[in-house]
Write a structure and sequence with these properties.
mainly alpha, 62% helix, globular
């Protein structure tokens, strides 16, 4: 029996944290309700509160932080905030950026801010994409266009081939624009290519899961060795998924997940097989995996072997896929409208339209009320999730 899964994987300590922003750029403000009122420059406070609709507490703190600046600063701050609003930034995004670093309001608009917005637009970023990126990584506005932003964008375009793909990576991982890609991403891409992973697959992973490409190259190599020991060869289409999945997990998280799988009744061998078929199963929360396992077993139609044989089943939504479909199938069976249930693969992978045509439309007069109620419940769940 294969027993090395937990032992080998749990030795890895490869959790990746995106490259830290320089401490000289970082400002955090923490105050308790018992602290005294902060001193601030009235004109700055009024500008932030009344003209730009900042929350009173944040306006007060920012004004206090910048109280040493001269009165001309107010005009500069107003110009910067007005320009960013015209560029599409929302009030909440501006508040986040200014809270991160109040001194942003004192830098030169024409020399420091406008060139960044311009170059991002030239590389195909939409206004919404630019606003999201900068609000998540405000250090972009402090980085050098020539030494940081353009080189990073150029490297990404060289690997991905188009501005659209570069923009996709930037939206998902804005810290790429301020990271040294020559020391991380480029060696990682070259290593995966040397393992025989086709560039189109590397590109697909880069646009889907960009974070893992900023992991230290030596960590990626260790992960590749372990994945190979587990029986997933570099020629497998799942190799790169397996490497990037393991590389983003700490020892503790990995060990916890392996033990959780065992507690559900899966053997070491079954865990290994599931991982080789769908590496991303280890990225799924154990709470979700437990709920899906219990839900499927409760139907009496599936056993642990069925679930382990089709690990992709853990990737689907409980509320939007499993709950409504299992309930409809149960009603059809109770009314003797179907002789046997479809396979787990069929239940999971059929589109809503195909599932409706195959299992609901022919019996709509028998299950219509239940179907309508289930759809309504699903919409309520979705509305609550989006609220």
């Amino acid at each position: 029996m294969i027993t090395f899964v937990g032992k080998n994987l749990s030795r890895l300590n490869l959790k990746h944290t995106p490259p830290p922003v320089s401490s000289s750029f970082t400002h955090h403000f923490f105050y308790t309700s018992g602290e005294t009122q902060l001193g601030h420059t009235p004109k700055v406070f009024d500008l932030l509160l009344h003209r730009h609709n900042f929350p009173p507490e944040l306006a007060s703190r920012v004004a206090s932080e910048l109280s040493h600046l001269n009165l001309e600063f107010t005009t500069t701050a107003d110009s910067i905030l007005s320009f960013l609003k015209e560029s599409g930034f929302s009030n909440s995004q501006l508040a986040r950026i200014v809270k991160y670093s109040p001194r942003l309001l004192s830098i030169n608009l024409d020399d420091r801010i406008k060139p960044k917005i311009k170059i991002l637009r030239e590389f195909g970023f939409s206004s919404d994409g630019i606003c999201k990126m900068i609000s998540l990584n405000p250090s972009i506005l402090y980085s050098s266009v020539e030494n940081n932003i353009v080189p990073s964008l150029s490297v990404l375009k060289g690997l991905l081939g188009s501005n659209d793909k570069v923009a996709t990576v930037g939206r998902k991982a804005p810290w790429f624009l301020t990271a040294n890609l020559q020391n991380t991403m480029v060696p990682n891409v070259e290593f995966l290519k040397s393992c025989g992973v086709p560039m189109d697959r590397v590109s697909m992973i880069l646009t889907s899961y960009p974070r893992c490409f900023l992991i230290k190259p030596e960590s990626i190599r260790k992960c590749a060795e372990k994945v190979n020991e587990m029986g997933i060869e570099a020629s497998s289409k799942n190799f790169v998924y397996a490497v990037t999945t393991i590389a983003q997990m700490s020892n503790e998280t990995l060990e916890h997940k392996l033990q959780a799988f065992k507690s559900l009744g899966f053997s070491d061998r079954e865990i290994l097989i599931m991982f080789s078929k769908e590496p991303r199963v280890l990225s799924t929360s154990m709470e979700k995996i437990k709920k899906i396992t219990e839900l499927l077993l409760a139907t009496g139609k599936f056993n642990m072997g069925d679930i382990g044989h089709f690990p992709v089943s853990f990737m689907f939504s409980i509320e939007k896929r499993y709950t409504p479909r299992l309930r409809i199938l149960g009603i059809l069976e109770s009314k003797n409208l179907i002789k046997e249930w479809p396979s787990l693969c069929t239940i999971c992978t059929l589109s809503d339209d195909v599932f409706f045509k195959r299992f609901i439309s022919p019996y709509l007069h028998q299950v219509g009320d239940a179907y309508i109620k289930q759809i309504s419940a699903g919409k309520e769940i979705e509305s609550e999730a989006n609220a």
